[in-house]
């Protein structure tokens, strides 16, 4: 199971999306998902997750397409200890709202001089507003908020409710509403309430029949319905100068999986930002020397790396539905072959967990081998 941005039709069953408390039982043990609003963790919080994964799980961390983290291989009952550790670290501030704190944000906002506003304060404000509203605990675990500073990087991820600059987005489309920064969070919360008022069993706004128009009408808007942005194929890679004279370094994580040694390497950064493209950004560094450390650890620091744009679900043996060990097969296929062009996503079954937003090639494992879709 992966934190995907699904492109499928209406759902009929209950939302079983995992969290830090509600754990999914996979073949390799319990799977917990740690919500990280905006993807940003201080070094202390990164260390807390790293130690929990080492002590309670398999030691590695998975990065999801919403900038969240997953801990795999939990023993039965270990979720209680995990929740306690995350709570102490400030990563589980609400038991009731754990699974609804899905917020992606422009990873370099306020640092590289792009965008029309710094969305970092809005991430904290929106997270607090969600947790303070008892009704919003009923949002499905796959409902997604996006805060785009105007550059268009996360606006194209198909979030249910979002912001691009001053424009309020509904299912990734222009709602017709324009708001100042100080009004943005209230508008996004109102849109989430409007979705709850309209939904029956739908998990996503895009699954609600005529959902954009219905939600917009409750907000007093007449949406033009235009897409806010095209999906970005991959996130920042390499060194990025900051406006304050410091440097951010960024890397793609091969197949979205950090092993124990790579998790430990990232403990040396003051801040770790997990991106929706299954990469990391380490901001506020004095120079770009940490880039070499990431490269030595096996992360993709070159835009021409064969791992840029390549993702995969967990496959077998972790998932009982998978027809193949897709990560191992992807590693063999892409080694030494740059994947530029369309992103490539390897999946072990037709559920296609973790599929990226936008157009991409899908390598689908079947009982008869792989097919490309």
UniProtKB/TrEMBL annotation:
Does the keyword Signal belong to this entry? no
Q: Does the keyword Iron apply?
A: yes
* InterPro entries for this protein: Cbl_synth_CobG-like (IPR012798), NIR_SIR_4Fe-4S (IPR051329), NiRdtase/SiRdtase_haem-b_fer (IPR005117), Nit/Sulf_reduc_fer-like_dom_sf (IPR036136), NO2/SO3_Rdtase_4Fe4S_sf (IPR045854)
Report the EC code(s) recorded for this entry: 1.14.13.83
Alphabetically ordered keywords of this record: 4Fe-4S, Heme, Iron, Iron-sulfur, Metal-binding, Oxidoreductase
The record places domain Nitrite/Sulfite reductase ferredoxin-like at: 31-86
What is a GO molecular function of this protein?
precorrin-3B synthase activity
Cite the NCBIfam families for this sequence. Answer: CobG (TIGR02435)
Annotated protein name in UniProt: Precorrin-3B synthase
From which organism does this entry originate? Phytohabitans kaempferiae
What is this organism's lineage? Bacteria, Bacillati, Actinomycetota, Actinomycetes, Micromonosporales
**Name of the encoding gene:** cobG
């Amino acid at each position: 199971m992966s934190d995907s941005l699904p492109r499928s039709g209406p759902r009929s069953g209950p939302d079983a999306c995992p969290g830090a408390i509600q754990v999914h039982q996979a073949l390799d043990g319990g799977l917990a998902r740690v919500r990280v609003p905006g993807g940003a963790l201080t070094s202390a919080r990164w260390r807390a997750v790293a130690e929990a994964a080492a002590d309670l799980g398999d030691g590695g961390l998975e990065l999801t397409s919403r900038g969240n983290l997953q801990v795999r291989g939990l023993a039965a009952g270990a979720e209680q200890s995990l929740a306690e550790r995350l709570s102490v670290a400030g990563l589980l501030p609400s038991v009731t709202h754990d699974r609804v704190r899905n917020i992606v944000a422009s990873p370099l906002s306020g640092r590289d001089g792009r965008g029309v506003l710094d969305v970092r304060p809005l991430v904290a404000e929106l997270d607090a507003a969600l947790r303070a509203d008892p009704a919003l605990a009923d949002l499905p675990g796959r409902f997604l908020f996006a805060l785009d500073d105007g550059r268009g990087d996360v606006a194209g991820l198909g979030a249910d409710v979002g912001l691009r600059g001053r424009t309020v987005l509904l299912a990734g489309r222009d709602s017709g509403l324009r708001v100042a920064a100080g009004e943005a969070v209230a508008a996004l919360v109102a849109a989430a309430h409007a979705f709850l008022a309209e939904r029956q069993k739908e998990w996503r706004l895009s699954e609600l029949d005529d959902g954009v128009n219905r939600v917009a009408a409750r907000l007093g808007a007449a949406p033009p319905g235009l897409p806010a942005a095209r999906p970005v194929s991959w996130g920042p890679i390499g060194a990025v100068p900051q406006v304050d004279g410091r440097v951010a370094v960024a890397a793609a994580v091969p197949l979205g999986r950090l092993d124990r040694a790579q998790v430990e390497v990232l403990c040396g950064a003051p801040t770790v930002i997990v991106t929706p493209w299954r990469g990391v950004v380490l901001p506020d560094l004095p120079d770009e020397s940490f880039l070499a450390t990431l490269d030595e650890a096996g992360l993709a620091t070159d835009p021409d790396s064969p791992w840029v744009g390549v993702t995969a679900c967990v496959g077998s043996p972790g998932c009982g539905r998978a027809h193949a060990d897709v990560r191992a097969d992807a590693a063999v296929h892409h080694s030494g072959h740059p994947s530029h062009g369309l992103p490539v996503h390897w999946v072990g079954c037709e559920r296609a967990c973790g599929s990226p937003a936008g157009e991409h090639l899908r390598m689908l494992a079947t009982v008869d081998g792989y097919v490309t879709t």
